[in-house]
Structures are given as structure tokens and as C-alpha cells.
Write a structure and sequence with these properties.
The structure holds two protein chains of two kinds.
Chain A: E1 2-8, H1 14-22, E2 27-30, E3 37-45, E4 48-54, H2 66-77, E5 82-88, H3 92-104, E6 109-114, H4 116-121, H5 128-135, E7 139-141, H6 150-163
Parallel strand pairs in A: 1-4, 1-5, 5-6, 6-7
Antiparallel strand pairs in A: 2-3, 3-4
Chain B: E1 5-6, E2 15-21, H1 25-33, E3 41-47, E4 54-58, E5 61-65, H2 67-70, E6 73-75
The chains are: A alpha/beta, B alpha+beta.
């Protein structure tokens, strides 16, 4: 069983993507040390058992809000095999910051640039390959709302899990 | 005429460049996460009546800001 945490800013379509990936089979789970419940779903991808966890939407991994503290405590206490970072593609200019913070923590990650349809409409064009090379993490353009790019995302998640199958799940050394 | 202008004083419709954030760590981090950081261009779209909030655009993001928080954002001359 592999654990993937879904992380993103508010209003990025993070929960829509979570529901698309899990097919609305999510239930509520709670974790020791956390006073809030998190959405949790088990899914099978090509025979691979995956536990997907929807973290609260936050602006900043070093921020001071309650939700930001919850996410920090979760990541400190729960080893994850992969972090799925969900960003609003049309606001990449400021949201990339969250992906950089995850990279700084050396957590294995896949970056999903959601709302790609909206970004294109606003005239924002993104070179996902260049961004991926610069981040050292897979970067995918998709639209959870219109179900575009979801299969590629699933394959990428699986490939990343398989690539690090022999390594233990990650806990960042220092979050603050 | 003051040498340092503040976002709170920027006329509606005008655009300026953020110079610095004179805010405590918590507010500064939140403003930066919303894209309001030094060097960024910021435009005031509209303002609330009297001392109401400012509606501003930074990059591709629009946000509402308390007037007293906007007073902590200084602008480049």
C-alpha cells in the first residue's frame, strides 16, 4: 500500500481532482495528533493499492493559519510515498511557490497544473517539460473539471511510485 | 510630498511596483503567498467606501486587502 498526499492552495480544484481520481469513494479518516478529519480514499491503479489523502487547502507550508499547521503536522507524522501538488495553472506566477517549498523539503512529488483550460483562455502558456526539468519533478497540465489529462496523471503517479518502490516513505527532516 | 507611498494611498486604477512589506512575519508570508512581494506590479481595481478594503490585482491574481494591511505595503517611487 502506497500513500499519496494531495496538497494545494485553496481554489485550485484540488478536491475536484481528488474526487475524479477516487471516483467519490472517499471516507473520513483521522490521524493521531491531528484534531481535524481528512478525506481519505483507497484506490487500485493497475493492481497497485494506493491510499490517497486530501489535505486542507493552504497558501504556504510555512504559514501561520490552523490549516497550515495541520498540514505541517500531518507531513511530519505521516510517511508519504508521494505528494501530489495541485496548482492553478492560470495563477502559476504565485502558486509555484508551494511546489518549490515541497521541493525544498525533498519530498517526492508530482506537480499537477490544474485548470489548464482556463489558463489557455487567459493567454497563459506553460512549457511543462521545461518546468519539469527545472523542478526535477514531473509536471502535468490537466483539467479535472473537464477530465483532461487524468489518465496521464495516473500513469505518472504509478511510474513515480514504482521508481521509488525500494525506498521508504518520506518524512521531511525540518518543516520549520 | 512624502518620499514613500503606500498601496493604501494608490489611486483606484493606478499601477505601481511593490517596494517592501512592513508587516509581521505572519502577514508578510500570507501576502507573499498571494503574490504580493517586492518587485511585483500591483493595480488597485476598486476600493471599499471610507476605510473599506482594497480590491487589487497582482499578476494573475485578484485579492481583497484590508486598508490597514495595504498601508503596510510600500511602493517604489
Amino acid at each position: 500500500m502506497s500513500t499519496i498526499a494531495v496538497l494545494g492552495m485553496p481554489n485550485t480544484g484540488k478536491s475536484t481532482l481528488f474526487n475524479r481520481l477516487t471516483g467519490h469513494h472517499a471516507h473520513i479518516g483521522n490521524w493521531p495528533g491531528l484534531t481535524v478529519d481528512l478525506m481519505l480514499a483507497d484506490l487500485q491503479l493497475e493492481g497497485h493499492s494506493i491510499q490517497l489523502i486530501d489535505l486542507p487547502g493552504i497558501y504556504d507550508l510555512r504559514g501561520h493559519s490552523d490549516d497550515e499547521a495541520v498540514v505541517r503536522r500531518f507531513l511530519e507524522q505521516t510517511p508519504v510515498d508521494l505528494v501530489l501538488v495541485v496548482l492553478n495553472a492560470s495563477q502559476l506566477d504565485r502558486q509555484l511557490r508551494l511546489a518549490l517549498q515541497v521541493q525544498l523539503l525533498a519530498l517526492p512529488a508530482v506537480v499537477a497544473l490544474n485548470m489548464a483550460d482556463e489558463a489557455a483562455r487567459f493567454g497563459v502558456s506553460i512549457h511543462a517539460e521545461n518546468l519539469s526539468a527545472a523542478l526535477g519533478q514531473p509536471v502535468l497540465l490537466l483539467s479535472a473539471k473537464y477530465r483532461q489529462g487524468l489518465e496521464t496523471l495516473q500513469h505518472t503517479l504509478l511510474a513515480q511510485l514504482e521508481a521509488r518502490a525500494d525506498r521508504p516513505a518520506a518524512v521531511p527532516e525540518q518543516l520549520e | 510630498m512624502r518620499s514613500v507611498s503606500r498601496l493604501a494611498d494608490l489611486p483606484t486604477g493606478a499601477t505601481a511596483t511593490v517596494h517592501a512589506l512592513a508587516a509581521d512575519a505572519g502577514l508578510r508570508q500570507r501576502l507573499e503567498a498571494l503574490g504580493l512581494r517586492p518587485g511585483q506590479s500591483v493595480q488597485v481595481l476598486r476600493r471599499g467606501w471610507w476605510s473599506g478594503p482594497l480590491h487589487v490585482r497582482v499578476g494573475m491574481t485578484e485579492l481583497m486587502l484590508r486598508r490597514r494591511d495595504a498601508a503596510r505595503v510600500s511602493l517604489a517611487a
